[in-house]
Amino acid sequence: MLPRIFLVVLLIASMGDTCWAKPKKKPQGNSARMTIVEVSPAEITLDAGTAAQETYKFSAATKVTLAGVPVTVDDLRAGMAATITLASDNQTLVTVDAQKAPRVTKKPPPKPVVVWY
Q1: Count of domains in the chain?
Q2: Which of 13, 52, 101, 116 counts the highest number of beta carbons within 10 A?
Q3: Which residues does 74 contact at the CB level (< 8 Å), separation at least 6?
Q4: Which pLDDT score, from 0 to 100, does residue 6 have?
């Protein structure tokens, strides 16, 4: 009997946070974080990491910021991460907050391995 109780207690302890963890909060509103693929004065194409890319329209009231600083659509570039908020039609942008694109560093090629016989 004692080994069974020990196993049950061990099982409950190993589950840890999975049973009692608070659920993660979903972003409020209609916002999402995506990567900019292409930008034109009228629309923006974004990639959310899924197979399909989404295209959204700018309006005259769309607020565009780069790291929190107000900018124009012309300052947005492909590769930047962007958090967007959509209007109720799910096609028109209300806000776009972009972050500078991450730097890509090239690693030097591996050194050749010399084998002596």
Answers
A1: 1
A2: 101
A3: 41
A4: 73
